Amino acid sequence: MIFFAACAANQGDLVSEEARKAGSEDVRQTQSGVEFEGSWETGMRFCLYSRVASRLLMALYIDEDTTSDEELYESTLALPWEDWITPEKTIKVTCTTQSCSWIRNNHYAALKVKDGICDHLKEKFDGKRPDVDIEHPDIEFHVHVQGDVVKWYADFSGEALHQRGYREDQTEAVLKEHLAAALISRSEWKKTVNDGDPGIFMDPFCGSGTIAIEAALMAADIAPGLIRKRPYAFQTLPGFDENLWASLLEEAEGRRRKALDERDIRIYASDISGKAIRIAKEAAARAGVDGLIDFKEKDFTQFTEKDVPGDKGFIVTDPPYGERMRVEDIDRLYTDIGYTLQTYFKGWRATILTGSSDLLTNIDMKPDRTNSLYNGGILCQAAHYIIFTDEEREALIERAKEKKRIRLSTPLSEGAEIVYRKIMKNLDSLKGEMEKEGVTCYRIYDADIPEYAAAIDVYEGKWINLSEYAAPDYIERETAEARLNEIILATERATGIDLENIFVKERRSQKGKNQYNRLATSNRFNIVRENGLRLLVNFQDYLDTGVFLDHRPVRKMIQEMAEGKRFLNLFCYTGTATLNAIKGGAVSTVSVDASSTYLDWAIENLKINGYPTDIGNFFYRDDAIDWLWETYDRYDLIFCDPPTFSNSKDRRTFDVQRDHWKLIRAAAMHLAEGGTLIFSTNFRRFRMDERILEDFSVEDITAKTIGKDFENDPNIHKCYLIKNKVKVSVPKRKSFRIRNEERY
Description:
Strand order of the largest sheet: 2-3-1-4-8-7-5-6
Number of strands: 32
Shape: elongated
CATH topology of the largest domain: Rossmann fold
């Protein structure tokens, strides 16, 4: 027989192993499940023991050359359906397709198959045909079409395999049984179960108890089929061997008794909700494992040493991940989870499932590995942690120190040595002046050696942001990678900053949406200082860190110009210019950006500096150009630093060279009398439009806004002061006559 086991995405390897344990020697993973061959016993054993699969189908017929819905009907009509069903029974037909151009509607294809089955049986049984029952059919047929290949199946498992029957009531957040089993199977604890010594298992966010119950079933070697409430579909199919099935059940019962006799099973489940604990206890009783689980109403973030049941154990849990909680509350929860784990669970292993991988950064531990799985259509991340003891952590630190000592004592390659010397020369030239000016974030290298093309920025003497310029196509990949590695080693040697704090990115030409794509989702921020302010930077998630270092003099100028001014920041990014305006004494600020991410970042920047975000300082998520045309307020000081190129959903693309004259005109309409617009762009070939030069007072201040660390690249940006021209009224000349002379 050929069987098909449906399963959730990314779980095919687990289901394949279940098929092998059921007795199949021919197992193949597909995009939507696992196909395997075996006897009736193999199929029944799979249904009895499978913890991860959701459904099992048995292939009845295969046609490899069907090219239309009519051929599908004719092929179905020709098959011997009387071998499986009589007119007294009820049926249901479902259909799925893959890479099939001739089926446009799965429901229509299912109707064609249903008609073929019924018409065939009418011919065999004097016009009698089975009725359709969508809810509780006697037999369900399924047809799958892939290209021109059609496979007809009978439902072998019936009710979904994950429906064990122990859940009646439940909490709001529910993890289905087969997904809980998959999560546990990915954890380190499952390996100890396979070895016969489960060890301590804990779920501190147990909710309705699914994870703890599935763990108890595994630890006690209880086949899910032993607690299933409804019969399997194969029990009503022709060919079912009741005696064989009875022997399989007896074997499963024997395995359960043996495990309970021989294994030390210690499973703990807790939750902050008393209602959840009541529901979980009732479900565990229905599953027959209530005696194996110690339930407790307890807030995990309030655990102390006495709440930890042993020196070593395994946590597998599914904490809330924000669907019903405020952002600040969920962030705090995950921070507290990390603190509790690292304080009281040293020596343990933990598996944490979340539907928002960003939250994992709050735990402040690096996962040993991760897995992905879907829970109700939500892509979730299972992160597996090793919680080191103090001794283990010290050993890791010592090993890291030894690796660093060996690395730093190894002579640099010729190329790395050249880069090292150049960085050292730049540092000698820059460091004194930067310290004198109080600058802690600056550029120390920018493709000074053409073959080693990268921009290297140092932040606070602690972190390096190293942006590699994409190598030309004629440079072999191996050569480019070797040169990058030499740059990294030279940077570490010259700055003394550890490799783990050197963040490497590839900088290539970006256009459209790609220029704002996230590189990662670490959500890890650090604080740097500039002009008496604290700024949040992120070295991992974006190409840029949140602070454009070349604009440092511009921001200082804004601070010096802002006293008593109404300030507008267009394309505000992370709000660094707004911060400087507030610091300089601006009476009010308005910041506009199309990105909610950057606006949130800007608001956090204000918060860490103690500035209000609701009184006097306003933030608008909008396209800056649209916003200018839709509002009427006037400002004394405007800063406009548009992207070189961008897309907007509601208008055509923006190109700074082509469109800056329109942008400047729109911004100038909002200038108060005597107001100043600071216009900046990083487009290296930028030329100010003659129409702007004619209609406005324009001063090119680029040279004044290039810091010493960017003097070797004077085209890094262009910057202008723009004002409305002052209109002077000249009175009309009047003529008058004095002693017969006409004077003016």
